[in-house]
Amino acid sequence: MASNQQVKILGFVASPFVARAELALKLKGVQYEYIQESLANKSDLFLKSNPVHKKVPVLLHNNKPVCESLVIVEYVDETWTGHPILPSDPYYRALSRFWSRFIEDQVWLAVFKAAWNPNKQEREKGAEEAREALKIMDKELKVNGKFFNGDSVGFLDIAALIIFYWVPIIQEASEFNVYSGDKYPNLEKWGQEVLNDPVVKGVLPPRDVLLSFFKTRFQSLVGSK
Amino acid sequence: MASNQQVKILGFVASPFVARAELALKLKGVQYEYIQESLANKSDLFLKSNPVHKKVPVLLHNNKPVCESLVIVEYVDETWTGHPILPSDPYYRALSRFWSRFIEDQVWLAVFKAAWNPNKQEREKGAEEAREALKIMDKELKVNGKFFNGDSVGFLDIAALIIFYWVPIIQEASEFNVYSGDKYPNLEKWGQEVLNDPVVKGVLPPRDVLLSFFKTRFQSLVGSK
C-alpha cells in the first residue's frame, strides 16, 4: 500500500458487521488503524462519518467515509488489488449479492427479533422466521466449491459469517434455538470451511467475550419479560 | 447483441422494481422479451425462476435467472458494454450502493407501511418515518451533476425513480402525504432531471394506469379501516 494511503476502521468489538470490513481488508493485505468506538458515547469523528445511520463499521480511506458493511467490502475489493473478493463471473456476483441481501433482510432481521424483542411472542415469531429463512437457504443456495464460489474466501462467505459464528453465540445468550448445524447440512458444511480459514479466524472476536456481551445485552433489553 | 443471447424479463406492469430492470436493459440497448406475470396466478416458469422470493422482476439470461431489481441492474451493467450504469470511481460506486440501500430499507419500507398497513395508526407512523427518511436524504445526499453522478442516468438514478415517480402516485391513491417536492428541494431538482430523461420516460407506465391500480390495491388492503 502506498505510504500516502490512510485507512481506518471505526468499530466495536462485538459487531459481526465490523468483522466483515476487517476481513475484507485483511484478505487484501491492507494495513489499517482500528479505532474502537463507544456506542454509548459516540465520537464526533464517528457521528460526522456516518450521520445517516450512526452505526459501525465506518471505513475511512484518506478521510473519506464509506458506510454499511457490505458496501465497504465491495469498496475494498474495487480499490485494492490482490485477493479477489467478488467472483469474476457476473452470474456468481449476482448470486453473491442476492444471497447477501437474503442474509440481511431475512435471516438477520429475524434473528434480531428472536434475540432482543422485548415481547416474548415476537421473539418466538422471530425464531420461527429465522428457521424458515435458514431452511430456504439450505435448500436453494448452491455452494460451488470449498467456499461459496471456489477455493478462496469471497463476498458471500464474508456476508454469511454472521450465521456461522455469531448466531450460535447469540442464541445461547438469548435462550432461543434457531441454528443447529445438523438441521441445515449444506450450511453446516460450508460454515465449517469458512470458520477454518486462517484469515477468517484472525478477525473473530473470542467466543467468551461475545457470549458475555450478548448475555448482558439480552438481560438489559429483555430481562425476564 | 449476439443472436445466441436470449434475454427475458418476467414482470408486472405496476411494479417500480420491474421498471428498474427494464431501464437498465434499455440504457444498454439490450433487446429483451417482456413476459407479463399474473401475481394472482404465478406461472411455473416464474416460480421456478424465483423460488426464494416469488417476486418480479426476474431477468432470464440464456435461461439463467437473476432476481432482485438492484442485483439485476448490476448484473446488466457487468454483462453488457455500452452506457455505464455504476460510476467508475469506487467511492461513487459505494455511495450509489449505500443510498440505494437507504431507499429500499428506509424510504420504501416506510412508504409501504404508510400506504397499505391495515392499521391507521401504523399508516400514520409509516408516513412520518418516510418523511423523516426523505428529509435525511435531501440533506445528506450530494448530487454530483445533472444526475447523481454526472450527465447520464446511473445506478442511483435508477434506484431513486421509485421516489420520483411512484411515491407521488401511491400517496394520491392511498390518501397520505409523504413526498411534496418543494419540501425536499434537492431531491425535487434531481428528480426532475431523471423524469425528463427520454430513456427513463420510455419505461414509465402511464400515470392513470398506476393510479387506478394503486387505488384498487388501497381499497382491497385498507378499505375504510
From TrEMBL, chains A, B:
GO terms for cellular component: cytoplasm. It catalyses: RX + glutathione = an S-substituted glutathione + a halide anion + H(+). InterPro entries: Glutathione-S-Trfase_C-like, Glutathione-S-Trfase_C_sf, Glutathione_S-Trfase, Glutathione_S-Trfase_N, GST_C, GST_C_Tau, Omega/Tau-like, Thioredoxin-like_sf. CDD domains: GST_C_Tau, GST_N_Tau. The keyword Transferase applies. Keywords: Transferase. The keyword Transferase applies. Pfam families: GST_C, GST_N. GO terms for biological process: glutathione metabolic process. Its EC number is 2.5.1.18. Residues 5-84 form the GST N-terminal domain. It comes from the Eukaryota. Residues 89-218 form the GST C-terminal domain. GO terms for molecular function: glutathione transferase activity. PROSITE patterns: GST_CTER (PS50405), GST_NTER (PS50404). Belongs to the GST superfamily. Tau family. This is glutathione transferase. It comes from Acacia crassicarpa (northern wattle).
